[in-house]
Amino acid sequence: MPNETLSPIGAPERVSHARASQPGKEWWRTAVIYQIYPRSFADANGDGIGDLAGITARLDSLAALGVDAVWLSPFFRSPQNDAGYDVSDYCDVDPLFGTLDDFDRMRERAHELGLRVIVDLVPNHCSSEHVWFQEALAAGPGSAERDRFMFREGRGENGELPPNNWQSIFGGPAWTRVTEADGTPGQWYLHLFDSTQPDFNWKNEWVWERFREILRFWLDRGADGFRVDVAHGLMKADGLPDVPEPEEGESLAEAMMKPDEVPYWAQPEVHEVYRDWHRVLAEYDGDRVLCAEAWVEPLSRAALWVRDDEMHQAFNFSYLSTPWNAPKLRTVIDESIAAFGDVGAPSTWVLSNHDVVRHASRLGLTVHAAAPASGIGPASEDKPDEVLGLRRARAATALMLSLPGSAYLYQGEELGLPEVIELDDHVREDPTFHRTNGEVYGRDGCRVPLPWEADAPAFGFNATGASWLPQPAEWSAIARDAQEGDPASTLELYRRALALRAELRLGEGSVAWIDLGDDVVAFRTGEVVVITNLGDGAVELPAGEVLLASGPLDGRAVPTDTTVWLRPTS
Ligand code: GLC
Ligand code: CA
Questions:
Q1: So what's the pLDDT on residue 371?
Q2: What angle do CA 190, 192, 197 make, to 5 degrees?
Q3: Cα dihedral 198, 202, 203, 205 sign
């Protein structure tokens, strides 16, 4: 074919910044990491809640999918008030999920299959049932035990007012008053999340020592790294000053969430913690990693978590929050590669997780105004167009998996699972729902147990049919076995994309933009041209071999909401 067949694309306009990754080194720079949400993945003992033995039994399907690692949300001892993000023993498995032996078997099987295992570390707070918090309650005001947490005297004449105006992220006040041993109302303790999740005092060396031990416990057990929960929140500004008054039209809750202006997010001292942990991990072989869950903006700020001597990766929530809009996507891709590249880290990419509306539904919202973590429920005004949402989700994933760096997948997105909207109030478990009196639906809709087999009880989630959240009947059509081998299925699209990504080393690529119009995201990475059409009209494909298409093509035309990977004719 003559060269001019490439002319619709034209010469690369501009190469986006430095390469983010160093080929061949440090597996995590280009890895695809699959998030397992243990309570909803697979349930071996049939009690309706997923468990470690269930995971072990199903790991081969993740190896077949083509991911490099799994990250497991918490399976530690916990009263489960926040689905395990309220830990009462960091060094044991909750009986709900199994035993430490089950963990070892799961880890062994994963490693046999070539999958690394990342565990979830929750250092901002523990469960109020943790013995450390119980000791703090018993020891009383002024004790060393209380100093491990954030206890303060109340304001007001008799200490009846909370120490400051902070609100819980889940709704309601961020302070709870305790009753002292003599029966009188006493001090208050801080909980940025649920009242059963007391915040640690990270200005106390004792806390640092305990967490080093916890890291070593899991590293010794063969964990390949940690996803670090609320990694922007550990340090609070001295004096715990009030949050600035909300601006006109803003609620206090909204004012509380501003990642850069509040005295409990992104305090500079937090970085010392990660430098310390970096040194702990460096004592171990095998390229172990730390990944920050830090909801911090802008990206240049988030990049501070992944400087050379800190963590290895940080979730790219700016990417997750970007609406389905071509100029905005181009900008966030550029900014991500630049910001993380500036500190020598790979960019990461993510579209879904256990805290946000699944992207197959989110991208089908007409307004796209809902905060991703607020959830969608029966009474929500904006309900997704599911057909549109899935088409866009497939295009969005195909775009994401072509990008240089590392990508995170959330269990079920490879099946194109939508958010479950029709959940009765009484089955909802997210503390957000209860703490806001149902005003915010919260995150249960993205946590419904996975459908594995179309014709089995609980769609193969277990053998008994029990399921802690009900699965929609129509999920039989999108169960994993119903999609296997069907080239048009979302599962096969993910498999093909992951296989090609590995084969073509797209994780090591770079982004050289191509101008195909404002509504088209198009670039060259290595030998591949990637085109995502977000415009209304079709985009003519240049000559070349189509390697991957997120949806049906119209001859040589890329329809709206479709991504193509093309090997251009040279
Ligand atoms: C993180 C977790 C979320 C949890 C919260 C409190 O944001 O991802 O699920 O509720 O921290 O631990
Ligand atoms: Ca179970």
A1: 66
A2: 75
A3: positive
